[in-house]
Model the fold of this input.
Amino acid sequence: MYHAISPRPETSRGARFCCAPQRFRSHLQLLRAAGWQVLPLDDLVALVRARRPLPTRAAAITLDDGFRDAVEHALPLLREAGVPATAFVATDCIGRANEWMVREGYDARPMLSPDEIVRLHRSGVAIGAHSASHPRLSLLSRDDAEREMRSSRDVLERLLGAPVRHFAYPYGDVSPRERELARLVGFTSACGVVPGPIDPNGDPYDLPRLEVCGWDGPVRFLGKVLRASLRGTRRVRPHGVG
Ligand SMILES: [Zn+2]
Done:
């Protein structure tokens, strides 16, 4: 899971969510060199839903929130590497700025316009829903949480004229109620932010994801990937050391 892919200097607080394009390119190259196969999220989810074993060292790339730099910077690098990806879009901010982050004290960044979302989709980047206003869903009433999920899916489907199958919980804020709602609304999968290997017997509405931060250089990146891939298979120290 990435957020912004941008060379733009960030405040130290926002650096976590902003990966420089050269660094993103090096991560994609490192994954390949380390024997990882990047698959479309659709393919991974289909295996989980069929309870079929996943290939070893298989991963999906996801970009959260819908920053404009997904089309400016991420798309050319994904094409160069021949790697599929899914972009999760918070729909109230389409063509605007990352208003929920600005309210939390982060820098303003431009978000994808409707045309740019269509361009990403036509270029082979899958588009997923990430709620309308990027709230903590567990703090909302059940009706409001359902509305956030359903409306973001509907806005994107109308824009693309294609089904939007995947959801990512804002902040990874998910409880059994949100998982049930994601299923009820009709998504085929939903992603959280807990790192770990995808369990073929796991819940497709609680897929693990590894957050990659802007400060993750090559050694740190590969270490994180390795630790996440081993998590649950044996005891691993929590990451963040060093
Ligand atoms: Zn988000």
The chain has eight helices and nine strands. The first helix runs from residue 21 to 33.
